[in-house]
Amino acid sequence: MTGCSAAARGCALLHTPGPHEGRRGADPHRRPVALPRSGSPGRQRRGAVTRSGDVTATRATPRAQIADGLDFRTTGNLRRRCGIGGFFVDRKEQRFWRGDFPADCDDVGHRELYVRRLQFAAFMPMFRSHATQPPYSPDLSTDHISRLGNLPLAPEYIYQLNHGFLSNL
Question: Are residues 63 and 36 in the same domain?
Fold first, then answer.
């Protein structure tokens, strides 16, 4: 919420009751979930899982996402997720299209970055890939990404994180 006024941050809390109550009224047996880009204290009680918004596919973006997520969690709200897929992959005229991979999934670097982001997302409270380029869902044309996903991700580190997480429940 950097750069937003206090009034704008307060409005973020007011955006969730209407959709939440409407969905609960339509089906009281289901818990509604919203994926807003903005967050404020109290939004999680209305099913909001704050997300970082659309992110660029660069090698520097995941580092910024980790720092941003840690900052957000200091508010006490642990329900935050980030864009996994690297939404803006190549470069276009709009200022937000600043990705490093003009060949999309044909670029080995982009495939590796995508897999690393999926591995990072395994530690998020909600796992949801979000990108403008394929793969939107697994199929034979994305088998190369599945093979990259089988690469080891420092198992000792994962066990350490898991122990720390479970011991704080």
Answer: no
